[in-house]
Amino acid sequence: MTATAGRARGTESRVSGADKPERQVGMTRVLVVDDEPQIVRALVINLKARKYDVDAAPDGATALQLAAARHPDVIVLDLGLPDMDGVEVIKGLRGWTRVPILVLSARHSSDEKVEALDAGADDYVTKPFGMDELLARLRAAVRRAEPTGAGEDDVMVDTEDFTVDLAAKKVNRNGRDVRLTPTEWHLLEVLVRNAGRLVSQKQLLQEVWGPSYGTETNYLRVYMAQLRRKLEADPAHPRHFITEPGMGYRFER
């Protein structure tokens, strides 16, 4: 990749964040969290070449500190950090921010991917990776996080069983807020914004989990079951989250 160029720059690509000037107006800030110097250098060089503002952290504690101090627009996070598991970093971030988190990890198992996504990650890329694909996913994550028009965000959706406030990102049932995981909320939001329309399995997978997910229908079954348990009066006979066998799902008020 571009590790040679990175080595020539020495430690300049290890960004502490404390002494950096504020980002220029319109620049997207990326926080790279990885303890492999070659990967950090390659990412920093490629991102800066594309006019991103970049901070970097070698461990979870530094990542949490930089995220709070620098407010990145997107985070690229390795799971195998020296001081804590990356999933714990995701949970720590999700306690106060919905910034897009793109996991970059050598872990390939389905269970580990589900754990990271359930904790609040927005996408998952396995190492080794192609720089072009990673940058495309990063751009997609940033686009999904961009606020929509004011009229579209000021949406309250009422059903007989619960209310969805898309602007506040809250769900209320019987006078009480329902706690949803970030993945559950993202799935609900896509369905609610397409109320009455069939949303294909592939579309749901790609919008919620990322562009490389199009066939993992077991993810949908698991999370739809969780939404029904939390929101349907009779989860075994849903009236709001309808399955269209072999095709997708539909939200009905």
What does this structure look like?
The protein has helices spanning 3-8, 37-49, 60-70, 86-94, 110-119, 131-145, 150-153, 182-193, 201-208, 217-231; strands at residues 29-33, 53-57, 74-77, 101-105, 123-126, 156-158, 163-165, 170-173, 176-177, 198-200, 241-244, 248-251. With 253 residues, the chain is α/β, with parallel strands linked by helices. It has two domains: 3-145, Rossmann fold; 153-251, Arc Repressor Mutant, subunit A (Orthogonal Bundle). The strands form three sheets. A five-stranded parallel β-sheet has the order 2-1-3-4-5, sandwiched between helices. α2 (37-49) links the parallel β1 and β2 (53-57). The longest helix is centred in the middle third of the chain and has 15 residues, at 131-145. The protein is elongated. Residues 154-253 form the OmpR/PhoB-type domain. GO terms for molecular function: DNA binding. Residues 29-142 form the Response regulatory domain. Residues 1-21 are annotated as: Disordered.
